[in-house]
Design a protein that fits this description.
The structure holds 2 protein chains of 2 kinds. Chain A is α+β, with helices and mostly antiparallel strands. Chain A has 2 domains: 189 residues, no CATH class; 130 residues, no CATH class. Chain A has 10 helices and 12 strands. Chain A is globular. By secondary structure, chain B is of the alpha/beta class. Chain B folds into 2 domains: 130 residues, no CATH class; 127 residues, no CATH class. Chain B has a 5-stranded mixed β-sheet. In chain B, strand 4 and strand 5 form a beta hairpin. Chain B starts with a helix and ends in a 27-residue tail after the last helix. The chains are: A alpha+beta, B alpha/beta. At the A-B interface, helix 7, strand 11 and strand 12 of A face strand 2, helix 6 and helix 8 of B. The structure holds iron/sulfur cluster (4 copies). The site of one iron/sulfur cluster has 13 residues of chain B, from helix 6.
Chain lengths: 337, 276
C-alpha cells in the first residue's frame, strides 16, 4: 500500500499548500516559452513537457540578483544587504535532472563560505519531482549515472500511475514529509501500478571519458580545436544548464551610490577570462570549450566528488550550432582517443 | 545528379586544385532534422557535406572568424541568397575581401533545394534585384501587421514582455554575420558602458542597441531569431528597421559589394525625417 495523489485532487493540494504559506511553482507555458513559474491552478501547469526550456536554477540563482545597496558619504560608506525573501516554495513537477542540478551545486555555494542567497532559497523550497515516463533524443541522464527516477535533490518523488489517474508519492526527506503532512486528507492509500520509466539510452562511457580528461597529455590535444570549431561562443549552453553557476559581480549606479549585483557569466564568453591588461589566458573558443568540459568532468569532481552535469541535454537541445556535452564525450569515448 | 552530389564534387575539385583552402558547409546533426556547420579541408572529406532543405543557417558568419582570411587564401562557403547579401555587406564594410570567397549558392523553396549559378558575390547581382520585393513569411507578416496596428504604448508593452525573457546569452549577436565587432559595446568594461544585468532595463538597452546597429544591415536570415534560447521574435525588430531604411533611403542591404552603408553615408537629398 502506498500513498496516491490523484490528478483530480491536485488543485486541493495547491490550496492546502497555499494556506500553509507556500508559493507553488511549476513548469508552465507563457509568452512562447516554457519555464518554471508560479501557478494558480493545476490547469496552468505544463506537466506534459519532457523538460521546460529553462531550468529551476532560475529560482535559486537568478540571472541577475541584487546583493547589497551602497552609499558612499563624506566620512563613511553605508551598506545594506539585500537578502532574498523568506517565502516558502513548493516546486511541483520538477524532473530528476533539474532536481539533481541543485544537489550538485550545493557544495559549490557552501564551499568556502555559505552563500546565503542560494541557501536561504534552498532551505525554504520543497522539490516535488515527477519521474520521467518519456524522454527526447537529447536526454542523457543515464550517461552520467543518474536516471529517470533518480532521487538526487528531490524531497518527494512522484511516480506516474500506469492508468494515468495520478501519482504514487514517495517522501525522501524531512522537508518532503512536512509538505506531505499538509495534504494527507487529499491522498489515498492504494495499491496501484506505476507506469514504466522512460527508456534513456546510455550515450557515452563517462568513466572512460573522465580517464581521458584526467590525462594531462590530452590537455593540448588537437581534438579540442576540431570539436569546437563551429562553436560561436554564445552563452546558451551555460545559461540553460541546471548546474552551471558562474557569475560576475557588478556595481550598478553612479560613483556615490548604487547596487552591487551578482550576474550570470559564462566560460563561453571571451570576456570571462580577460585580464585588465588585455591579456586573455583563454583566448580561443577551443580553450573555452575545453574549460567547460574539464570543469564539469574533471575539476568539479576533484573538488566536490561529483560531476557537474545532470544529463538534462539542454546544452545540445538549445545549441544554435548543434554542439553539446553529448557529442564531445561521445567522440572522446567512441574513438578511444 | 542531385544538388548535394553536384556540390560535393565541386567542393572536392576546389580543394584538390588548391583553389580554396577550406569549404564551410553543412553536415548531419544529432537528430534527423538537424544540420550543423562543418569545415572540410580535403577532397577526401567531402562526403561529410549535406545539402537539403534543412540547411537554413547563414554560414557567412564564419567568414569573419579572426584570422581566417588573413593569409590571402580563398575559402568556399555554402550560402543562400541571404548569406550572399551578408558577404556583400561584409565586403562593403571592409571585413572580407570578396575575391577570397567562393560562393556555393543554393536556394530553398519548400522541400526543394536548387543550385544558384555563379561563384562570386558579384555574379548574383540580378538575383539581388529580384529579392528586393520579397517580404516576410505569411505567418511573420501577420505578426508584424498586428504590431503595426498597436498603439505605441501597447507595442512597448509587447516588447517589454518579450525582452523580460532575455538572459543576455548574446547568441543573437554571436550567430549574426553582421555582428563582427571585436569588442561589442556591451563588453566594453573600462568603464562598463552598458549594464551587464539582465533585468528589464538592461535587456531593453541590449536589444535596442543591437537593433540600431543592425538597421540597414540585417539580411533577414533569421539566425538570431532561431538561436535565441528564450524565443524572442527578433526577426520582427530587424524587419521593422529594414523597412524603415528601405522606405526612407531606398536601401536594400547587401545588394552589391560596393553599396555604401546607409547609416554611415550622407546624401544631400536624404529625407530629413527622423529614422524611427
Ligand atoms: S556550444 Fe553551442 S550553445 Fe555553447 S557556446 Fe558554443 S555555440 Fe553556444
Ligand atoms: S552540461 Fe548539458 S546535459 Fe549536463 S546538466 Fe548542463 S545543460 Fe544539462
Ligand atoms: S540581425 Fe539576425 S536576421 Fe539579421 S543578419 Fe543578423 S542574424 Fe541574420
Ligand atoms: S539570443 Fe535572445 S536571450 Fe540571448 S541575448 Fe539575444 S535576445 Fe537575449
Amino acid at each position: 500500500m502506498t500513498r496516491i495523489l490523484l490528478n483530480s485532487r491536485l488543485d486541493d493540494c495547491l490550496s492546502a499548500w497555499r494556506s500553509a504559506g507556500y508559493r507553488v511553482i511549476a513548469p508552465s507555458r507563457s509568452n512562447n516559452l516554457t519555464s518554471f513559474d508560479e501557478v494558480a491552478s493545476a490547469a496552468d501547469m505544463a506537466l506534459d513537457l519532457v523538460l521546460p526550456e529553462r531550468t529551476i536554477k532560475d529560482h535559486f540563482f537568478p540571472q541577475t540578483e541584487p546583493l547589497v545597496r551602497y552609499e558612499i558619504k563624506k566620512q563613511q560608506i553605508d551598506t545594506e544587504e539585500m537578502l532574498p525573501p523568506d517565502d516558502k516554495r513548493v516546486f511541483f513537477g520538477v524532473r530528476p535532472c533539474d532536481a539533481a542540478g541543485l544537489d550538485i551545486d550545493d557544495p559549490l555555494f557552501g564551499w568556502d563560505y555559505k552563500d546565503q542567497y542560494w541557501f536561504k532559497r534552498r532551505e525554504n523550497s520543497v522539490i516535488v519531482t515527477i519521474a520521467c515516463t518519456k524522454a527526447d533524443p537529447f536526454c542523457m541522464c543515464t550517461s552520467v549515472n543518474l536516471g529517470p527516477d533518480n532521487p538526487k535533490g528531490s524531497d518527494i518523488m512522484l511516480h506516474p500511475l500506469k492508468d494515468g489517474r495520478g501519482w504514487q508519492m514517495v517522501t525522501l526527506t524531512d522537508r518532503g514529509k512536512a509538505l506531505l503532512e499538509t495534504v494527507v486528507p487529499m491522498l489515498q492509500e492504494d495499491a496501484a501500478e506505476t507506469a514504466s520509466l522512460a527508456n534513456v539510452p546510455v550515450k557515452f562511457d563517462v568513466e572512460k571519458a573522465m580517464t581521458w580528461l584526467a590525462d594531462p597529455a590530452n590537455f593540448e590535444s588537437h581534438f579540442w580545436k576540431e570539436i569546437s570549431q563551429r562553436c560561436i561562443g554564445c552563452g546558451s549552453c551555460t545559461f540553460l544548464c541546471p548546474t552551471c553557476h558562474c557569475f560576475d559581480i557588478q556595481d550598478e549606479g553612479d560613483t556615490y551610490s548604487g547596487i552591487r549585483r551578482k550576474n550570470w557569466d559564462s566560460c563561453s564568453f571571451a570576456m570571462f577570462t580577460m585580464h585588465t591588461s588585455g591579456h586573455n589566458p583563454r583566448n580561443t573558443q577551443s580553450m573555452r570549450w575545453r574549460q567547460r568540459i574539464m570543469h564539469k568532468f574533471n575539476y568539479y569532481r576533484g573538488k566536490f566528488g561529483v560531476n557537474s552535469c545532470s544529463g538534462c541535454g539542454r546544452c545540445t537541445r538549445q545549441c544554435p550550432v548543434d554542439m553539446g556535452i553529448t557529442e564531445t564525450l561521445q567522440e572522446i569515448t567512441n574513438t578511444a582517443k | 545528379m542531385g544538388i548535394q552530389e553536384q556540390y560535393r564534387n565541386e567542393a572536392a575539385e576546389l580543394l584538390s586544385s588548391g583553389a580554396v583552402k577550406l569549404v564551410i558547409g553543412y553536415g548531419g546533426g544529432s537528430t534527423p532534422d538537424r544540420r550543423r556547420p562543418v569545415f572540410v579541408r580535403s577532397a577526401e572529406e567531402v562526403s561529410r557535406l549535406v545539402l537539403d532543405s534543412y540547411c537554413v543557417a547563414n554560414l557567412s558568419a564564419y567568414l569573419i572568424s579572426e584570422g581566417l582570411l588573413s593569409d590571402g587564401k580563398n575559402v568556399a562557403v555554402f550560402l543562400k541568397p541571404d548569406g550572399i547579401r551578408s558577404v556583400n555587406i561584409l565586403s562593403a564594410e571592409a571585413q572580407v575581401n570578396p575575391d577570397q570567397v567562393v560562393i556555393l549558392g543554393f536556394n530553398i523553396e519548400g522541400e526543394q533545394t536548387t543550385p544558384l549559378p555563379g561563384r562570386k558575390a558579384a555574379d548574383y547581382a540580378p538575383l539581388m534585384e529580384s529579392l528586393r520585393s520579397s517580404g516576410l513569411s505569411p505567418e511573420l507578416q501577420r505578426e508584424a501587421d498586428r504590431l503595426e496596428q498597436m498603439s505605441a504604448v501597447e507595442r512597448f508593452d509587447y516588447w517589454k514582455e518579450q525582452f523580460a525573457k532575455c538572459i543576455k546569452c548574446y547568441a543573437c549577436r554571436q550567430v549574426c554575420p553582421m555582428c563582427y565587432c571585436r569588442r561589442c559595446i556591451v563588453d566594453v568594461n573600462q568603464p562598463q558602458w552598458i549594464n551587464t544585468s539582465s533585468h528589464t532595463l538592461g535587456n531593453f538597452e541590449w536589444n535596442i542597441v543591437r537593433a540600431f546597429h543592425l538597421a540597414g544591415r540585417c539580411v533577414a536570415c533569421g539566425g538570431c531569431d532561431r538561436a535565441c534560447p528564450v524565443n524572442i521574435p527578433l526577426r520582427l525588430i530587424n524587419h521593422r528597421m529594414s523597412k524603415e531604411t528601405l522606405d526612407i533611403f531606398g536601401h536594400f542591404p547587401g545588394e552589391s559589394a560596393d553599396q555604401k552603408p546607409v547609416l554611415a553615408t550622407f546624401r544631400q537629398d536624404d529625407p530629413e525625417t527622423f529614422i524611427l
